[in-house]
Amino acid sequence: PEQSVSTNQDNVVIISPEEKSTATVPSTGDSSPQHVASLELVDVGRQNIEAGNIDQGINMLERAIALDAYNSRAYYYLSVAWLKKGQPSRALEFAKKAELLCQGKKRELRKIYLLESDIYRKMGEQDKADMYQWKAKEL
């Protein structure tokens, strides 16, 4: 099913219930305490973002990355958070990091490409927005 990042009238990113329920754990097989703690911090960060506590969510996600720099979900949600804060350039920076970490993972890449499409659209770069929309559909 095609997913898209949507926003409400206040330009707040809406995270779909499907996205919440299909969050995936990176397939590194890492069950170290740091990795597990990082995943838990991502969940807390995501919940804060959904509740409108963007800065607190960003703090949790940054802590998650400090524990596991390869946690693509942390970068994805940092991108969502910065987009909600109205800083698409910063959002794009984190989306690109998530994209690099998810090479070969079609489901995750599709979500990231759709997010990047929305970021480019908000930046007024329609050609790039269309390109990332196309890339998502081709996966």
Lay out the secondary structure:
Elements: E1 6-7, E2 13-14, H1 17-21, H2 33-50, H3 54-67, H4 72-84, H5 88-101, H6 106-122, H7 126-138
Antiparallel strand pairs: 1-2
Helix pairs in contact: 2-3, 2-4, 3-4, 4-5, 5-6, 6-7
N- to C-terminal distance: 11 Å
**Roughly what percent helix?**
55-70%
Q: How much of the sequence is in beta strands?
A: under 5%
- List low-pLDDT spans: 1-28
CATH class: Mainly Alpha
Structural class of the helices, strands and pairings? Answer: mainly alpha
Q: Your description of this structure?
A:
The protein has 139 residues and is an all-alpha fold. A hairpin with a 5-residue loop joins strand 1 and strand 2. It has one domain: Serine Threonine Protein Phosphatase 5, Tetratricopeptide repeat, CATH 1.25.40. It has a two-stranded antiparallel ribbon with strand order 1-2. Helix 2 (33-50) packs parallel to helix 4 (72-84) and helix 3 (54-67) packs antiparallel against helix 4. 68% of the residues lie in helices and 3% in strands.
Brief summary of the model shown:
This protein has 139 residues and is an all-alpha fold. The chain has a single domain (28-138), classed as Serine Threonine Protein Phosphatase 5, Tetratricopeptide repeat, CATH 1.25.40.10.
